Amino acid sequence: MIQIGFVILTGLSIAITSEDVDTNIGPCLSSFYSAAYHKSYNCTSAFEYLSVAEDICAPTDVVELNAEYNSFIEILTEKSSDETNCSEPYYQHSDLKCFPILQDMAVKLKDVVDVHTEINDTRVLKLINLCEQATVGNLKLSDVFYGCIKQTCLEETEQTRIIDTCEMIKMKNSEFIVCNHKIQEKLADLSNHTCLDDFDFNLETNELTVELYSKKKECTLEIMRDSCGESAVDNFDHYADLLIKQSSPVQQLD
Ligand SMILES: *[C@@H]1O[C@H](CO)[C@@H](O)[C@H](O)[C@H]1NC(C)=O
Ligand SMILES: *[C@@H]1O[C@H](CO)[C@@H](O)[C@H](O)[C@H]1NC(C)=O
Ligand SMILES: *[C@@H]1O[C@H](CO)[C@@H](O)[C@H](O)[C@H]1NC(C)=O
Ligand SMILES: *[C@@H]1O[C@H](CO)[C@@H](O)[C@H](O)[C@H]1NC(C)=O
Description:
- This protein is mainly alpha-helical.
- It folds into two domains: 2-152, no CATH class; 175-234, no CATH class.
- The chain has helices spanning 26-39, 46-56, 59-67, 69-77, 89-112, 122-135, 148-151, 156-172, 175-185, 205-213, 217-228, 236-247, 249-253.
- Helix 1 packs across helix 5 and helix 5 packs antiparallel against helix 6.
- The chain starts with 25 loop residues before the first helix and ends with a helix.
- The site of one 2-acetamido-2-deoxy-beta-D-glucopyranose (NAG) has 4 residues, from loops.
- It comes from Caenorhabditis latens.
- This is T20D4.11-like domain-containing protein.
- Residues 92-244 form the T20D4.11-like domain.
């Protein structure tokens, strides 16, 4: 069986320079966002915000938060005028805000990495939801976490890594990947497809995958269509590229 190794979000380092968040309440805010995320508090309501803060922050921090509540909400909701300046409080808060989701994703990802899952596995569906929450634009304004990746000052490469990982999770829930498993398990039986005439069946798993979806791409497309039907080749090019990315040595060392 071919296992899917995801590009894991480990080493996901988000530079949260909490000292820069207007006062020294960074750690308190960090816990606040984490609590808000995990318990789904309504952060736009003053009452809830302050009662959450009382639960998780030191009393002196709560006094400070109380005093700064209005400016805090302003910072939280109004996009910075300077989109390139990561020291702007707006971005500092956004990073703190996004971190609980990314952490949750990393934890949940460990449960499905290298595990063969059926379509609609609840663990995978949950991850797909988290991905949408973190990466899609601001669709639901009531949800402060929505699309938070784009509001952060994460490096472009980090953002890309998260987005790629999310695409791989979607792929894991596709007919394409089910069919990929199926054909790779009994590839030798498929050697009657003349387009596989010169194929080296002794390649190691990852090399074999890369070969199938690069040099032998058209052949693989044909085999998948024959063996699994049209739904298996939906989005074929996109998924082929992702599989190659995932199976290439550089990515694995990452
Ligand atoms: C959160 O609170 C705000 C302000 O009280 C309210 O307008 C909004 O509808 C609430 N959202 C949710 C999801 O409860
Ligand atoms: C970036 O924002 C910070 C905080 O608002 C400000 O002190 C700093 O001067 C800004 N830097 C630039 C280059 O605009
Ligand atoms: C997965 O769930 C979707 C949406 O509920 C459904 O349309 C689809 O048929 C399910 N697929 C399988 C293989 O269970
Ligand atoms: C190849 O063999 C498989 C399994 O025996 C069969 O289902 C398929 O139709 C054959 N394909 C071609 C192109 O002959």
